[in-house]
Amino acid sequence: MTSRRIWLILALVALALRLPDIGNPLVDLDEQMYLLVGQRMWDGAIPYVDIWDRKPIGLFLIYAASAGLPIDAIVAYHLVALAAAVATAGCIAMLVRTFAGPKAALAAAILYLVWLSLIGGRGGQSPVFYGLPMVLAAWLTWQTLAGRRRGGIAAMLLVGVALQIKPTVVFEGAFFGVTLLVASWRHHRSHARVARDAAVYVAAALLPTLIAAGVYAAMGQGGAWWFANVQSIFLRRLTPGDPIATRLIGAVVVLLVPFGLAVRGLAMHHGQRRWFLAGWLASAVIGWLLVPPYFNHYALPLLVPLAVAAGIALDRPALRWLAALAGAVMLYLSGYPHWGETATIRRQLASLAAAFEQDRDHGCPFVFDAPPALYAAAHACLPTRYPFPPHLVEPSEAGAIGVDPRGELMRILAARPPAIAVGRSDAMIHATLATDYRPVARALGITIYRRADLSRGTDRSGASVRSPNPALMRPAGAQHD
């Protein structure tokens, strides 16, 4: 089987897996925020200053580039994510091909694509994009360790690029750096040379971050960059009662087959290749375990080292069939191919957006604990620099975003937004909605409330007006009768 055929098959498999979700604006909550930031960057908004999130600038640049394409912005970033997934899978296959047959290489790459869709990677989560530089860094590190080429600086530059998409790759990057220093020692047997190489590798890995920090410092916003990218990460807290153990167990169950194949593959390897693959996988697992609360997509970074480690095991036809059967069953259980979901969601979101935007002359509408995709769908101005709802409603974010979330919420409500989109109410907003707003549209578990003094006029949205849902009007945490 030629490399060209492998790439073609992977492109077709990725297309089949991801096509049903292309254009789905609600495929993931996080991605809605990333796209919103990317779109507003074209309007001149500066991340961390005008619109706040703690993700590195590299991720927002990917979304801004996608939003700049001359097609629907949601379709655009989904196509970019599709290309990234195919490229990552292809590189996994090429890496596995160095120690296993072409069928095993193809199977390992397909394993990555299938489980990417099973554990939160159906859209454009950050690991979908940074998996590519990390697998290339792994390949260059392995080639350097094996004495086939000297690619240490390039490998660490790629790690640096990945760091500007998601900082948690630091653990895998540190492992690659140590591995490169081992290779340096073997080749030169000089402490001075190892120290020099260490300094060069650290500089290469930090270069993209230093460039980003330098740009913000030149704008006089170095403090804003530092708080969002570094300080705020350590200010987040765990929410009491969060089902962390349940999420962790759920992720382990979903990844049971890839883990089993990876362990079997590691047992079949020998020498330095075994410890390299085991160390890479272990560093990825450490990075995962050290960053609760273990939402499903937090396990996405494990897929690349798992697929590579499983590669040699997939040389055996019986294990390939086992992986294929497990993947097919889990895809079925996940609801794939989600027939009609994207079209239905787009239609209903457009209806909500029409109601959400109709009074834009009276100020900026507000999304409270509902999809931030509404801001983009309605082309609405933002009532706050914190448009990602969890930043204002999740207890874990209190003290971690630079302002008091409750105080910011009070400020927004005091400005009397013309419309408020609510997915879940709490005591503060419940009182405001009950006295000053009335529901004008509902879909997707979201209710659009319009300010009462504006509601006396004609409803120009064309959206259906329905009676309020009592459950949506209860304060958060209230029990059903």
Question: How does this model look, in words?
Answer:
- With 481 residues, this protein is mainly alpha-helical.
- It is built from 22 helices and four strands.
- Strands 1-2-4-3 form a four-stranded mixed β-sheet.
- Helix 4 packs parallel to helix 6 (126-145).
- The longest helix has 28 residues, at 191-218.
- The N and C termini lie far apart (62 Å).
Give a summary of the structure in a few sentences:
By secondary structure, the protein is mainly alpha-helical. The chain has 22 helices and 4 strands.
Number of helices: 22
Strand arrangement, major sheet: 1-2-4-3
Count the strands?
4
Structural class designation: mainly alpha
Helix content: 55-70%
Key phrases:
disordered C terminus, four-stranded mixed beta sheet, mainly alpha, 4 strands
SSE order and pairing:
Elements: H1 3-18, H2 29-42, H3 57-67, H4 73-96, H5 102-118, H6 126-145, H7 152-163, H8 170-188, H9 191-218, H10 222-235, H11 244-254, H12 256-268, H13 271-289, H14 303-310, H15 317-333, H16 341-357, E1 366-368, H17 373-377, H18 389-393, H19 405-414, E2 419-422, H20 427-436, E3 437-443, E4 446-451, H21 452-455, H22 470-473
Parallel strand pairs: 1-2
Antiparallel strand pairs: 2-4, 3-4
Helix pairs in contact: 1-4, 1-5, 2-3, 3-4, 4-5, 4-6, 4-14, 5-14, 5-15, 6-7, 6-8, 7-8, 7-9, 8-9, 8-13, 9-10, 12-14, 13-14
